[in-house]
Each structure stands twice: as structure tokens, then as C-alpha cells.
Design a protein that fits this description.
Helicase, Ruva Protein, domain 3; alpha/beta; single chain; 20 helices; 16 strands; 4 domains; ATP-binding; Rossmann fold; about 450 residues; about 15% strand; binds adenosine-5'-triphosphate; about 45% helix; five-stranded parallel sheet
Length: about 450
């Protein structure tokens, strides 16, 4: 896996540094050893050609690993960093992961673990899957996916935050599926949907006879999750007494079934989700601060759909094809007006709303092309206008033109003549439109300003 890969090792401990380098050489890699932070920065700057990965001790005698990472990460295409941390440096390692480091390993570690994690980093496992992505194609969603990929094989709890319907459960399932836990169960519990008095038994289970009606032993979700993932949805709605029990479960890595006397080991990873501001709830005394610290070792924010425009047509097509596959329909395509309106809509219900609208439209549409009124029947009912969230036509047209021009420029790397050919207009027309719509060739890349929303 590491054959021919150029790996820089920044490590002041001579024994550790030499043994890593020797092993890397045995694996066919081309290792470089730098013993201090300053030597690393100097040597990296003077290097001809890139390195495939940097293995960096977080504590060095002169600079710390974080400073080296920040310096090298300023380059246009920085190499992935695998940090080596001591036990107490978890907070710092988590901070680095958030800042874009690829992975970290806590010392002491097995050499095989080191090589596997390094191979994952050096050959790009820290990237989002495939050119398309599994969760979306927009830059914010690609970043979320890359972050989840980096977190997949850690046991750290992850808190997914975001508006309702933004895809938190989908992200949790994706994290599970990409992790080494994928063969174990993914068990979800919605803390808002289960009455407080039943939630304890739902999570911890109970012994036979623990309370009236407990006719048989019942395994709770903490037990059923095994070594997989326990997904706690709407964690902000959990009552305070239950929060205390959850904290104990996390701290002891064990729990008791209700009425049970022997502890049961807890091996699953906790992924929780919320649409609330948990820090604000904690400030009001409605959420335990100590539990919050445990749950949000890493917080991944799912952006609302309106903040990731490129995902809208992509998701529309996926839902459209899935809905078409479910039953007979005359529909063959999504109309451009429907797509245009979808791009300008605010999506308060996020991806769930988009999915519901497509499902309903596919079920009810009568034509061959899914039209604006199929997707937004309320436009017709309300007769359009401002109150229906419809932009004036001139504004909508400008937004559409701006979007298409930006796409064409992005596709052609900013070359106006080629973009004009793609758009089937003359170069002069394109140039004039770019002036009027304030589009700079270099600022293309899908960056559509003032989209008329
Ligand atoms: N990236 C995605 N790809 C495909 N479908 C998605 C994606 N994100 C969300 N969905 C769909 O949108 C709906 C809502 O997603 P999900 O349940 O994950 O959202 P949520 O943020 O957990 O919502 P809530 O806060 O209400 O629990 C689901 O039907 C899901 O399948």
C-alpha cells in the first residue's frame, strides 16, 4: 500500500523516529526523518516535489505539531497529516481533526495499526467517497463527508447538529457504514418520540419482573448495539434524570438493565443528533454541561439545504429516479422550470421536504415532464406573488443566467470563448452578461452571488 509513497516523519524521539523510518522503508515507502519542528519547516520548504503524507509527533522540543501543521497546511495542496499524540492530548488532536488533519494515533500503538492508518491517509481514504460523494456534491457537503471519513475509525462520540430534515440520521448511518463497525448493528433511538418514563427501559433494557408488566428480560438499545453504533436522535429532548444515567453509561462503559444486578459492558460508539443549540440549553440548566462535553468530542454541522445549492438538482434527480422506480409513471424528466424554482426555494424542511415534494409530484403528475406546479402546487393555489415566495421574473431570470454562466465558466476553467460556445451565445453577449450580472471569470466555480432568494 505504501510502495513508492514519500512519507515525512517529524519525531524528536530518536528510537521512535528510526524505527518508524526503518519500517516504512521495509514497506517500500520513501521515508524522510525530521527531528525538530524547525528542521521540518526548513526541509519541507526546500523539498522538490510533494510528500504523500506527514507523520508528526504533536510534542516536539521547539515547535508543537499544531504550529507545523498550520504552517504546512497553508500550501495550495497540503499533504495529509497523521498526528502521533500522547494520552492526554486528545483535545488537541480533536481540534486538529476539525482543522483538517487527516487522522491521529495515540501512543503507544502497534506498528500494524500505524501502517494501516497511514496507508488510509496516504492513499486518500480520508477523502470523501468517489468523485460524486455519497451525501452530496456541494463543497459544504463534501467537507462533511471528508470529516466523517476521517472520524470513521475512531471511537470518539460524534454530535451531528443541523436543522430538521438536513440529513443527520443519513450522515450517522454513513459514518457507521464507513467504519470498522459496519458489520455490527446500527441502532437508533429517538429521544423526543419516546415518553421520558419509557426511555430508560428502551435504552438500558430490563430484567424479568423489574416492574409490573416486565414479563421477560428485554435487551435495550445500548445492549443491542453491540460493538456498533448507538444513534441518539433529538438528544436535546432527553430529560435531566436520563441525562445523568447516560453520562454514567459513557463514563463507566457499562450499564445495568433495570432491575439488574450485574453490569453489562457497553461497546458501541455513541453518535447523537440535535436541531437545538445544546450549549444554550446547557446555559439555561436544561442540558448537563458534563454530558455535552462527552457527546460533542467532535461536532459535525450539517448545513441546511438552502446553503448547498449544488445538492438540490443532484438530490432531485436521485429522488426522482427512486420514485419512478417504485411504480408506473409517464414521467421521463424533471423540467427546467421545476429545477429553477427548486434552486430558489428556501427549503425550510430541508432534504425531507425535497424528498416529499418529489415523491408527491411523481405520484400525481400527469405529463411526461415534471413541471413547476407539480413540485410547488401551492404556487397555483395562491396565485403566485411575493407571499408565495416567488421571485419577480426578472430577478429569477437573472439568477438563472448567473448560475448557468458560472457553471459554464467553472466547466471551462474560466475560458470565456469556450464557455460562450457551451452556452451557445457569442463571446460578446457572454461578456456583456457577465458585466451586467457582475460575474468575474476567476470567481466562477458555482459561486453565485445574489441568487435572487
Ligand atoms: N444526503 C442525502 N441523500 C439522500 N437522502 C437524504 C440525504 N439527506 C437526507 N435525506 C433524506 O431526507 C430525509 C431526512 O433525513 P434525516 O432523517 O437524516 O434528517 P434529520 O436531520 O435526521 O431529521 P430530523 O432532525 O427530523 O431527525 C430522509 O428521508 C432521508 O432519507
Amino acid at each position: 500500500m505504501l510502495d513508492g509513497r514519500r512519507i515525512a516523519v517529524i519525531e524528536d524521539d530518536a528510537i521512535m523516529g528510526e524505527s518508524l523510518v526503518q519500517r516504512l522503508a521495509l514497506e517500500g515507502a520513501e521515508p524522510l526523518l525530521w527531528r525538530t519542528g524547525r528542521e521540518a519547516l526548513r526541509a519541507h520548504a526546500a523539498l522538490a516535489g510533494p510528500v504523500d503524507a506527514v507523520v508528526c509527533d504533536i510534542r516536539l522540543p521547539d515547535l508543537d505539531g499544531e504550529a507545523i501543521f498550520m504552517e504546512i497546511a497553508r500550501a495550495a495542496a497540503p499533504p495529509p497529516f497523521l498526528f502521533l499524540t500522547a494520552h492526554g492530548d486528545i483535545d488537541q488532536a480533536v481540534r486538529l481533526l476539525r482543522a483538517g488533519a487527516a487522522d491521529y494515533l495515540t501512543k503507544p500503538f502497534e506498528m500494524d495499526t500505524f501502517l494501516a492508518r497511514l496507508a488510509a491517509v496516504a492513499v486518500g481514504r480520508g477523502e470523501a467517497t468517489g468523485p460524486e460523494g455519497a451525501l452530496g456534491v456541494s463543497p459544504p457537503m463534501r467537507r462533511v463527508e471528508a470529516m466523517l471519513a476521517r472520524l470513521a475509525d475512531h471511537a470518539l462520540p460524534v454530535l451531528l447538529s443541523g436543522e430538521t430534515g438536513a440529513g443527520k440520521e443519513v450522515a450517522a448511518r454513513h459514518l457507521h457504514a464507513r467504519s470498522a463497525r459496519a458489520g455490527e448493528p446500527f441502532v437508533a433511538v429517538n429521544c423526543a418520540a419516546i415518553p421520558a418514563e419509557l426511555l430508560e427501559s428502551e435504552i438500558f433494557g430490563h430484567e424479568k419482573g423489574a416492574f409490573s408488566g416486565a414479563h421477560a428480560r428485554h435487551a435495550g438499545v445500548a445492549e443491542r448495539a453491540g460493538g456498533g453504533t448507538l444513534f441518539l436522535d433529538e438528544i436535546g429532548d432527553m430529560a435531566l434524570p436520563m441525562q445523568a444515567k447516560l453520562l454514567r453509561l459513557i463514563e463507566d462503559a457499562a450499564f445495568f438493565r433495570i432491575g439488574g444486578e450485574r453490569p453489562v459492558a457497553f461497546r458501541a460508539r455513541i453518535v447523537s443528533a440535535t436541531h437545538c443549540d445544546l450549549a444554550a440549553l446547557a446555559a439555561e440548566g436544561r442540558f448537563r454541561q458534563d454530558l455535552l462535553f462527552r457527546l460533542n468530542a467532535v461536532e459535525v454541522a450539517l448545513p441546511p439545504l438552502r446553503a448547498r445549492e449544488a445538492d438540490i438538482p443532484w438530490l432531485m434527480r436521485r429522488f426522482f429516479e427512486a420514485a419512478r422506480a417504485r411504480g408506473p409513471t409517464r414521467l421521463r424528466a424533471i423540467g427546467s422550470l421545476a429545477e429553477e424554482a427548486a434552486l430558489s426555494h428556501g427549503w425550510p424542511g430541508n432534504v425531507r421536504e425535497l424528498r416529499n415534494r418529489i415523491d408527491r409530484a411523481v405520484a400525481l403528475a400527469e405529463g411526461e415532464v415534471l413541471g413547476l406546479a407539480d413540485l410547488f402546487p401551492e404556487f397555483l393555489l395562491q396565485g403566485g406573488g411575493e407571499e408565495a415566495g416567488v421571485a419577480p421574473l426578472a430577478e429569477a431570470r437573472a439568477a438563472a443566467e448567473r448560475r448557468q454562466i458560472s457553471r459554464a465558466l467553472e466547466h471551462t476553467g474560466g475560458r470565456i470563448a469556450e464557455a460562450a460556445a457551451l452556452l451557445q451565445v457569442s463571446r460578446t453577449t457572454l461578456w456583456e452578461k457577465m458585466q451586467r450580472l457582475e460575474i468575474r471569470p476567476g470567481a466562477a466555480g458555482g459561486d453565485v452571488r445574489n441568487s435572487g432568494r
